[in-house]
Specification:
It is a single chain. This protein is globular. The model is unreliable at 218-224 (pLDDT under 50). By secondary structure, the protein is an alpha+beta fold. Helices cover 52% and strands 20% of the residues. Helix 1 packs across helix 3 and helix 2 (33-85) packs antiparallel against helix 3. It has one domain. A hairpin with a 2-residue loop joins strand 3 and strand 4 (187-200). It has a 9-stranded antiparallel sheet with strand order 1-2-3-4-9-8-5-7-6.
């Protein structure tokens, strides 16, 4: 049963490629010297097998697209026309859109297989440029892991894609693209699309602090969470115009959201807006976790399309730029310095005792 569900999901993902594909080669990102060296020394030796796989899947992709456009859809149209002339009811009109959806998923499946094969071969090498990081196609995060977060919207099921995990000094790091859906009478509604960045600190924040998007007074009141209901007034006007802060401890909230941290959060928001067309950034500090929800519609970490040679470097500079932006969050917000100070303080206390 699970295999059938997974197979259906694959064909649905392939169908979405028809409309969601982004031409990564058309961007202004430039390869760094480190990326060029990594490409020449580590990635290029892998590309011969990747290119052979691409050529095989590309031929299958072209063949299936032709069959879809010149056989399947014309037959579906003819059946519908004959049915209408025969006096049948309008139910036959569904043949064309159903054939299009199923046929598109089937036709684009080889393209999806290539994208995944490329990622599994190349992405583990790319993420090593930034330290001890690993890559997988999906995250192991479960629905309850997300539902326990106050900044998460109400949802019923999730889908993850592209997961990068590792450590930044003493901080655990996990990134994944995330889509959340809520069931409704008419099917399901997407309530979130973007990415989640989870930082596991070597200390406890000893408070629960939320940094939420400023929706205006009425919506802010309606969406505030019972876990952290005290509004925290801060002195940065620009920050207050973008965010609403709630916490169960005013003092500790200000310890986290220092003037420097507020400026860096604003800079981080603008960086995501500029580089991945983000529309919203929210974060939560609870226990030993710092969690960031970044709302955007573009797919990150995507290679060039199947019709481009695997030896092309065109998409990699943008992937490098996106990875650098995501992995820099801890340092951008000075959380690495906060962690280092806490660890040093605890070590000093242990040595004295």
């Amino acid at each position: 049963m699970l295999n059938k569900i997974s197979e259906f999901t694959d064909y649905f993902d392939a169908f979405k490629l028809r409309f969601g594909r982004k031409n990564k080669e058309l961007n202004n990102a430039y390869a760094s010297d480190e990326l060029k060296n990594t490409f020449e020394n580590d990635i290029k030796p892998q590309l011969k097998s990747i290119e052979l796989n691409r050529e095989s899947l590309h031929a299958k992709f072209i063949k299936r697209k032709r069959q879809l456009n010149f056989v399947i859809l014309p037959i579906a149209a003819l059946i519908t026309i004959f049915a209408l002339f025969a006096g049948e009811d309008g139910s036959f009109l569904y043949i064309i859109p159903v054939s299009f959806c199923i046929g598109t998923g089937w036709a684009y499946k080889p393209a999806l297989d290539y994208v995944r094969h490329y990622k599994l071969k190349v992405m583990p090498i790319l993420v090593k440029m930034y330290g001890d990081f690993t890559y997988s196609l999906k995250s192991n995060l479960q629905a309850n892991d997300i539902k326990n977060l106050a900044i998460a919207p109400n949802f019923d099921y999730l889908k993850t894609e592209d997961c990068v995990t590792g450590k930044i000094d003493d901080i655990g790091f996990e990134f994944t693209e995330l889509t959340l859906h809520k069931r409704s009478k008419n099917g399901s509604n997407r309530v979130f699309k973007g990415c989640l960045v989870l930082l596991t600190m070597p200390f406890n924040f000893n408070s629960h602090t939320l940094v939420k998007h400023d929706h205006g007074k009425v919506l802010n009141w309606l969406t505030k969470d019972n876990k952290a209901t005290e509004k925290v007034a801060l002195e940065n006007v620009d920050f207050e115009n973008k965010f609403e802060v709630y916490s169960n401890d005013q003092v500790l909230a200000r310890y986290i959201l220092t003037p420097v941290m507020m400026e860096q959060l604003l800079s981080l928001l603008y960086a995501f807006v500029m580089k991945v067309n983000a529309t919203q950034l929210e974060c939560e500090f609870v226990g030993n976790k710092a969690v960031f929800f970044i709302r955007h519609t573009e797919n990150l970490l995507e290679p060039t399309w199947i019709d481009q040679s695997a030896f092309e470097i065109n998409a990699l500079p943008l992937i490098e730029q996106e990875l650098a932006l995501l992995i820099s969050i801890a340092k951008q917000l000075n959380l690495d310095l906060m962690a280092a100070r806490r660890v040093s303080k605890e070590n000093n206390l242990d040595s004295k005792s």
